[in-house]
């Protein structure tokens, strides 16, 4: 029943005995309607902040959980992976499914696209990392990690690949040759990895809550810059800011934290999720941080102040993955409700 119609019908009742009840009901109805209207409005954020609105597209992931998504540098293609081991290529603008490839024998846990838009890399619980042509979907090579692959990341120049998983080792690969060139031993499963945008810095988080940052040196073993117990539970997601100065981490302890990359100093801690944080990403300008959670929501934060700017509430189950379009005009979220949602954004001038 529409709010305006309900008010009109109830107000037209003539019996006096209903007058008091009608007055109370109309008041309550008005409050509900105003709340619904407020929720449906575009969120009013600070100047130059990004404003999310209701999801404009919902992509059907064919009945399987969505664990990973990535957007091509030109913003034209979205690739997703999930529980069924398949990789799906989508038109990122129209939401049309373009190609489906049976990429792995188990769930696809992580996806990365090279900055030149030529290469797609996928990591799976089947212990394998596969390298694909983004344009043709052709399999180029297969790397065998030897344990469940939880996370992968590409260097900005696409020369190196870093991966981690249940084998308690960080693996560093030469992507062109497909050879593993270094590894770093850890005490716990590696749940998240990231490559910095410059200087070949690598970061990872593990099941114990530990965070480590390493420097990849040319023709030399990687050098540890710092390591600390950053969270009280598993570090599920980790990302560098676009300028490479800040590291963001999200954890099963329900918090998101920002760190100084050079010193390992805690800059800010964000609390607002009601369950484990599964994924985080920065906007292209680095001003907005988006986090997604098992609590079925994604939240937008100001990277500068730590203030929460809004919530994307329309998924019915855990949101495992989140990505910005390269131009910052869309946010994509993937969930175990077997959908991908696109959230248009705009800059407030």
Automatic annotation (TrEMBL):
In what residue span(s) does the EML-like second beta-propeller domain sit?
150-320
Q: Which domain of life, per UniProt?
A: Bacteria
What is the organism field in this record? Answer: Acaryochloris thomasi RCC1774
InterPro entries in UniProt: Beta-prop_EML-like_2nd (IPR055442), WD40/YVTN_repeat-like_dom_sf (IPR015943), WD40_PAC1 (IPR020472), WD40_repeat_CS (IPR019775), WD40_repeat_dom_sf (IPR036322), WD40_rpt (IPR001680), WD_LIS1/nudF_dynein_reg (IPR050349)
Q: Which residues form a coiled coil?
A: none
PANTHER family xrefs: WD REPEAT-CONTAINING PROTEIN POP1 (PTHR44129)
| PROSITE patterns attached to this UniProt entry | WD_REPEATS_1, WD_REPEATS_2, WD_REPEATS_REGION
Q: Where are the WD repeats?
A: 59-100, 101-142, 142-183, 228-269, 270-311, 312-349
Cross-referenced SUPFAM superfamilies, in alphabetical order? WD40 repeat-like (SSF50978)
Print the keywords alphabetically.
Repeat, WD repeat
Question: What name does UniProt use for this protein?
Answer: EML-like second beta-propeller domain-containing protein
What the entry lists under Pfam families is as follows:
Beta-prop_EML_2, WD40
